[in-house]
Each structure stands twice: as structure tokens, then as C-alpha cells.
Write a structure and sequence with these properties.
It holds the Pfam family Acylphosphatase. GO terms for molecular function: acylphosphatase activity. By secondary structure, the protein is of the alpha+beta class. The chain has one domain: Alpha-Beta Plaits (2-Layer Sandwich). The chain is built from two helices and three strands; from the N terminus they run H-E-E-H-E.
Length: 75
């Protein structure tokens, strides 16, 4: 999954959070927003961008974070 793809989709839905690559070649992130927007983002991420190959999407519920204003790519 492409981090830029995820950031653009999250921003278009008004979802805040972050995404980054992990040392083992995976992509991880956190997203928060209204339920329908987060579900749209998860659906997009599960499909991935056109040339990506998404093997598995894992998700879990976490506490929301106050003060987030955008969706960032972390390095």
C-alpha cells in the first residue's frame, strides 16, 4: 500500500491520523474520524492503489487522540 495514496484518501474523507513504513516492509497507521469516513478509508486501503498488492488488512480499535488536525506521513 502506498503511503501517499493513504494520506490523500484520508484527507479527502476528513480523517486524521498517520501512516508509515515499518522496518519489515509493511505499512502501519492510525486513523480517526466519523465512522462512515473511517470505513471508506479502510475499504480503499484494503484495495490499495492500482499497482499495489495488499495481502492483509489488520485493524483494531484504539483510543482517539485529541488535537489531531490532519493525516500525516511519518518517516
Amino acid at each position: 500500500m502506498n503511503r501517499d495514496f493513504t494520506q490523500k484518501r484520508a484527507s479527502s474523507y476528513g480523517v486524521t491520523g498517520w501512516v508509515r513504513n515499518t522496518a519489515d516492509g509493511k505499512v502501519e497507521g492510525e486513523a480517526q474520524g466519523d465512522e462512515s469516513s473511517v470505513q471508506k478509508l479502510l475499504k480503499d486501503v484494503d484495495r490499495g492503489p492500482r499497482l499495489a498488492h495488499v495481502v492483509k488488512l489488520e485493524k483494531s480499535e484504539i483510543e482517539s487522540k485529541e488535537g489531531e488536525i490532519n493525516f500525516s506521513i511519518l518517516r
